[in-house]
Every structure is written in C-alpha cells, then in structure tokens.
Design brief:
Keywords: ATP-binding, Cell membrane, Membrane, Nucleotide-binding, Transmembrane, Transmembrane helix. The chain crosses the membrane at residues 21-42. Its main location: membrane. Residues 9-63 form the Polysaccharide chain length determinant N-terminal domain. This protein has 19 helices and 14 strands. The protein is of the alpha/beta class. The strands form 3 sheets. Strands 5-12-11-6-10-7-9-8 form an 8-stranded mixed beta sheet, with helices on both faces. The protein starts with a helix and ends in a 21-residue tail after the last strand. Residues 1-6 and 503-577 have low confidence and may be disordered.
Amino acid sequence: MEATRPSADFSHFLGVFRRHWWLVLLLTVVGVAAGVALTRVMPKVYEASTLVLVLPVEQDANSQNGRTKGAVNLDNEAQLVVSGAVATRAGALMRSPVSPVELARDVSVEVPPNTTVLTIRFSADNARDAQTGSHAFAEAYLLNRDETARAVLDEQVKSLNLKVRQQNASLNLINTKLSRSPSGSSERSNLESLRSNSQNQLNDLTGRLNALTTATINAGSVISDAREPESPVSPNAMLNLAGGAMIGLLLGLVCAFLRERFDRRLRTAVDVRDRGRIPVLAALDERTTPTFDDVLQPYGPGGRIFNRLRNEILASLTAGDQIIVVTGASRGSATTLVAANLATSLARTGSDVVLIGAHLPDSVMDAAPLARMLGVSTSPGLSELLAGRVVLKDVLQRTPRIPSLRVITTGGAATAAGLMQSQRLRDTLDALRRQAAYVVIEAPSTSSSADAQSLASLADAAILAVELRRSKRPALLDAAEQLRRVGTRLLGAVVLPQLSKMPRSIAEENLPAVTLGAQQAPELPAVDSDRTQKLPTVAGARAPRQIEGAGEVTTVIKAEKATAGAGRKEQPTDEKK
C-alpha cells in the first residue's frame, strides 16, 4: 500500500489542477498583466559603466588579510569612489544641482576578481546622464587619488627640506668649531668625524629630496570610458513578465488547493474513499453511466462494471443475507440507476430477485423512471400495498426481458410517508425473503428523508450511491453514520458522475399520482397479477394529475383507450372500502 501512495498523491494533485485549471490560468494571466502594468509604470533607469585601472602610489598599503592581495586595497578604493569628497567633485564636473549624497546613491562599484580594476556604474533616468555620471565619478576619483598622492608627496618634501636645513645648520656649527680647534688635538679629530657623518646624512637627505621633487604621480587611468547605453536596465520587461507569471501560477495553485480543501463537494472516487472514508465498490464514468431509458447491457462497459459489483456484493454477503438497500448521499436519480442495474445484474445469474421502489420523488418532475427502465406499469405499487388497497401478488410485476426479476414500483400515490415504519412493510419483506433469493430496495437519500434509515434497519446490507459534484462530504459522512446507528452493514459506495436532468418528455410519462390534501383519495381497485405481468404500460397513457379546487384535492386519472388490435374490453372495478 505504501508503494502506491506517492502515485496516488501525484494523481490527486493532477486532479486538483485539472479541476481548477481555469483558476490557475486566470491568476497566471493576472500575474502577467500585473507584470506588463508594472513595466509600464516603473520609471526607466539607464546605467553606464567606466573601467578604471588603479595604480599603486607611495602612500598605498594593503591590509594584511585583505580580500585583494595586490599593493592596493581595492575594497578601500571602492569605498572612496562613493565618498563625499569624490561625490562633491563629480557633481562639480557634471554641473548637477543634485546634492553629493543623492549622487552617491546612484553609484555602484564592483571589483572584478584578480584585477586592479574598478567598475564604476552610474544610474540615471536617461542615457546621457548615466554616461556623464559614470565618467564624472571616474574622473573625480582619479583626481582625488592624484591630489591625495601629491599632498602626501608635498608633506614628504617639506619634511625633507626641514631636515636638510637642520643638517646644514649642524654642519656649519661643526665647521666653525673645527676652524677654532688646534691642529693635532683630540677635539679636532672628533669634530672631523662629526663633520663627515653630517655630510653623509646631508647628502642622503639631498638625494631623497631630489628624488621626490622629480617624481611623477600616476594614480590610475580610465581604460574603458562610459558609453551611452542603448536600452534601460530597468524595468526589465522579460523579468517582470516571468516574475508575474510565476507569482500568478503559484497563487493559482495555492488558491486551487485551498478551494479544493474547503470545497465540501465530492468530485472524484478518490474523494469518496479518502475524504469520506468509504470503500468504493464501483466507479462509473460518462461513458459507462446508465441512462433513464434502459438498464445497461450485460456485455457493455457499464454492464461489466455492475457484473463485478454483483460478484463483490455476493462475496461480501453472509449466509441468510438477502435484503440489500441502496440509498444515496444526495437527492437525485443516482439511487434508482444503481438499484435497477444491480437488481438486473443479480437476476441475470438466474436468481429470483425482487426490486422494490421505495424512493418517493421529491417533486413530480423528479420522478424516478423505474417503470420505464424495466418496462412495467407505474401502478399499483408500494404506496397502494402499504395503504392496504392491494395485496402483495398484485404489485409484483415480472419484467418482460428478465423473467427472474420482479418489480414493485413506487406506486401511483405519494402518500406513503410514515408507512415505511409500519408492520405491513416488515411483513412484506418477510414474505419476500421466502419467495426470492435477493431483495433490492431503492430507498430515498439519507439527506432527504428518514425513510432511508428505516428501510436500512430492515435490510441486511446497504450500498451508497454517490453522485459526484452533487454529493457533499458532510452528507456522505452523515449517511454512513445513519447506517451505522441502525446496525446495517455498509458494503461500500457506487460512484457516478453528475447526472443530467431527466428529459421533460420522460418525466411526464412517469408522473406519479400525488395526493396532498387531508381528504383521503379513493382507493384503487385490485389488479390481477397475471395481467399486470403480461401487459406493458398502455401507449400514450398519462399518470394521474393533481387537480386542486374549492379547497379539495382530488385525483383524476386520464388514460386513452387502446382498443386497436387489443381486443380487450374495459373491465368494471369496485372501489374497496
């Protein structure tokens, strides 16, 4: 199981992206548009650079552990370029009214590795000012460096001149004493030695002074002057567009996952399994989903899925388990489609199967097309049976194409509310246990009626029909909890894609009779079971319609007489008391 987890997670991420690709695309486009707007709003910045070769002068001294190992510490020189003295001189050269502090903010200096070169860059809002500023700062730096070197040299010359004057005065004093001392005396010998030493020092000072006064200062030079830039360095359109697209993409992915995280709707079978914590017995797609007109063929893609579902259910049932209730996590016809196809698949094995339609429609237009799918009459059905108007044999209809499948439709009156908990229903299910191998109950959804819980309490196992994009995670969890509370074993879920609404023509053909008033509707006559099984629904027949007037609600049944080729006469019926 652990080996399949990474691929499952990756497929989940791809599913999130596939379901919310429009949100990701929208935010990506918004990010690109923001990049375009930012490019247009940002001021243009031009940058020019000048390369300056820095030559060592006498006062230069590199730090012992400096980053640059030459005679000149270029890190120090880079700081000197943006100093106030250089900025002031550069501003004078540029004739700019901007303060030296603001000019220094537009300068950046780089030191290429293993070189004695400074790259002086200057930024401005136009190309001409950028070129002028870079050249001006380079010139100002070299002038400042030259002046500093000359000032140091002048100080050395001044100091040497002072020493020369002092040495000359000392030598003159020695010569005066020497002229007064007698020849051959020890004092004269000492004075001559002092005069010789003084003369040597004077000659050394004079030589050093001559070297300083004739020395030339070369603090550096411009090896590549600034050129007028052809295009601005900022804003960078490609960078802004790429950055906007990347930010939009990331925001889109984050919003997609947040939307997926807080979206309570179930979108895939993986959501049912992981978020609903319910095993998935079968998952149908748009290609294999049944329609409202017929059940799936046994050897088609959808039929094979229900055949596998049948085998899994039979393997899960224990001895004595016969009744299976199919309910839904949301309103709709998903329960009808699953129950009809499951019962058909069970009956194709030769087992005697009874399908009970206990899913009372939420409205007339949402009537489940169980009778149309299996080719049986809409009434009498479960409503009449529980109301005591007919007996069990009168409502059991054998399907034309599958003889081992018998159907009890919902019936012609939707007044069975509260009868799902009646003793008559328990007796009916007990009788069906003795007559059939399996009983499949098409129950309403757990979110629309408490009848699903009542029917599940009488069943041996339950299956949830989950319609994607309509069912929600809280409703799915609540459905499982309701089944657990009544002690019914939940086998798993059958997942269907979102079903389209039933065509209006199909719905009108399957309209049930509805009685909503307090006055009890007249009871229907008992229908002979043999004739019910042999005769399909009369072509063109319409279900009873509700007519309301004068405070009363009555049931009117309109049916066309099918006499052509039928050879039947309308039989009189007596109303049951």
